Amino acid sequence: MGSRVAGKVALITGGASGFGRQSAVRLAEQGARVIITDIDEAGARESAEKVAGETLVCKLDVVEDDQWRDVLGRGLEVFGQIDTLVNSAGVALPNDDIESISDATWDQVMGINLTGTFLGCQHAVRIMKQRAGGAIINLSSVLGIRGDAQSLAYCASKGGVRLLTKSVAAYCGEQRLGIRCNSIHPGYMRTPMVQSWLDTLDDAAEVEQGLIDHHPIGHLGDADDIAQMVVYLASDESRFVTGAEMVVDGGYTAI
Q1: By the 8 A CB rule, do 26 and 227 touch?
Q2: Which SS3 state, helix, strand or coil, does residue 9 take?
Q3: What pTM value is reported for the model?
């Protein structure tokens, strides 16, 4: 067990799999108590079984303001504080180009990826300022920096997360709240969401190789690459880092 975030309490959305699950594991390894949330409560409980440390599991649909209030209230009741929020819940859907996208797809992607992140930030600021400090970590994407023809709503939502993060960071700094807010921008990673997309393709192997070729480092990343950045941003090691976009993409945006 490490001590990089010892004594801190971290709430993680999208904790049933992928970045959220691995972030919970790594934060706990470094001494944090973790609140694992997801709309998939069973998956969140499976994540908790992999965590070495104190956990609380809560069902949370990130687009529902009342559920945010309930979960945060429960977290405060159990642990007495919340020092870190990891907004990891996200979704990508098919038929997401400018001609094919439906209103329902647009609304769902923007709701989970952007509105859910906004609600988390808003509630976290209100709680963290009472302790004069905290860290908010928002999962964006390289597609929040660079466009993609087949990912209209996803790009728009993740680009929104990028600038929402900067606005929150600027506000918290202006108000001297002691709260830092940063975004992480993964490249294409080996996560369940990416794998489920590849599984729908007839030429999955060819597409996967194409993705690898777009990363100068020569391979795709995985959830642990992001979890390690989450630990850094949650820790006091990053005390002078706020409003930053931490690009973890194997060089995807460098070419």
Answers
A1: yes
A2: strand
A3: 0.96
Comparing CA positions, the residue from 197, 121, 203 lying closest to residue 166 is: 121
Residue in 76, 86, 71 with CA at minimum distance from that of residue 10: 86
CB-based contact 177:136 (threshold 8 Å): no
Neighbours of 100 (CB within 10 A): 11
Of 154, 188, 232, 252, which is the active-site residue? 154
Distance of CA 135 to the CA centre of its chain: 13
Q: For residue range 105-126, what is the model confidence (pLDDT) as tens digits?
A: 999 999 999 999 999 999 999 9
* CA 187 to the chain's CA centroid: 13
Annotation says 171 is catalytic: no
Residue 140 CA to residue 187 CA, distance in Å, equals 10
Q: What is the pLDDT of residue 191?
A: 80
Cα 123 versus chain centre, distance: 16
Contact assessment for residue 146 and residue 186, using Cβ atoms and an 8 Å cutoff:
no
Amino acid at 66: D
CATH superfamily of 9-189+222-248: NAD(P)-binding Rossmann-like Domain (3.40.50.720)
- Are the C-beta atoms of residues 27 and 5 closer than 8 Å to each other? yes
| Cα–Cα–Cα angle for 73, 50, 89, rounded to 5 degrees | 50
Task: State the Cα–Cα distance between residues 57 and 142, nearest whole angstrom.
Answer: 30
